[in-house]
Specification:
The chain has 268 residues and is mostly helical. It has one domain. The protein is built from twelve helices and no strands. The protein starts with 5 loop residues before the first helix and ends with a helix.
């Protein structure tokens, strides 16, 4: 990294954890904040590797449920059905992400104006979907059929364009296909686990030669900050969504997108 800053890493880690699991695009927030902080990392590796903190946060929150699923896997058709649905939902992002990785990192991640416009557009879509009078048919993530999981997984691929939001794409897709708001958010949590681990591993492999001991220190600071802030968000998000819906996140996206465009105009 060029002139790494532990303070910047701390700020970016907090941003990552606070935004990873809500539909506002953590990648967009981290990339825009990095731009204005003057924080550089080879291939924007920091933005992906620091996600490990958020991954561990969600694993900790759902540890008991994940352990129960693992222990009952040999005997419970319900547990096997759930695991199959998650794997099927993960498949599209695994394939497309591996194929398009270099284009995403070298082109899309390097276009902050595009990120701002996508933030605004996604916010408008999220507002529209939140106001729809949808009739949910699925209320329990353990009962999502594999066909629904696959369609949600296809929606997740839209998040390869920074600013779209992985959680936003999966949640909106799930809502439009019959999931209720709470289970849509929870399924997005579970789908995030293999997706983020896969992205982390792929990025680490591709950029291992560019990383130094100093990078490990900076990434470690970001990791701890992302873990703590991610833990807070995961523990409170489902209850918040059940009460307030997704409109607050939609307006936040629009505000940040407009502010980002203004900032890029004066500080390109």
């Amino acid at each position: 990294m060029e002139d790494p800053s532990l303070f910047s890493a701390l700020v970016l880690g907090l941003i990552e954890g606070l935004t990873e699991f809500i539909p506002v695009s953590s990648t967009a927030h981290v990339l825009l904040a990095s731009h204005f902080l003057g924080f550089k990392s080879p291939g924007n590796t920091f933005a992906v590797l620091v996600q490990l903190g958020a991954i561990l946060a969600i694993l900790l929150v759902y540890f008991r449920k994940l352990l129960d699923i693992a222990l009952t896997l040999p005997t419970s058709a319900r547990s096997r059905w759930f695991v199959l649905s998650i794997l099927i939902g993960f498949l599209p992002a695994a394939v497309i992400g591996a194929i398009a990785h270099d284009f995403i990192k070298t082109v899309l991640f390097e276009t902050p104006v595009l990120i701002c416009y996508v933030l605004i557009g996604g916010g408008i879509i999220l507002l529209a979907v939140d106001k729809l009078k949808l009739q949910p048919r699925y209320f329990d993530v353990m009962n999502y059929p594999p066909s629904l999981a696959f369609k949600i997984g296809l929606c997740q691929c839209l998040a390869m364009v920074p600013g779209t939001s992985r959680s936003g794409a999966t949640i909106v897709g799930a809502l439009l296909m019959g999931a209720d708001k709470r289970s849509a958010a929870e399924f997005s949590f579970f789908l995030a686990m293999p997706t983020m681990v896969g992205a982390f591993t792929l990025d680490l492999i591709k950029n291992r030669k560019d990383l130094s001991f100093d990078d490990v220190t900076v990434i470690g600071v970001g990791f701890i900050a992302a873990f703590i802030s991610g833990l807070i968000v995961v523990r409170s998000l489902l209850a918040f969504v059940s009460r307030r819906g997704y409109a607050p996140f939609a307006w936040w996206r629009i505000i940040i997108g407009i502010a980002g465009l203004a900032g890029l105009y004066y500080y390109p």
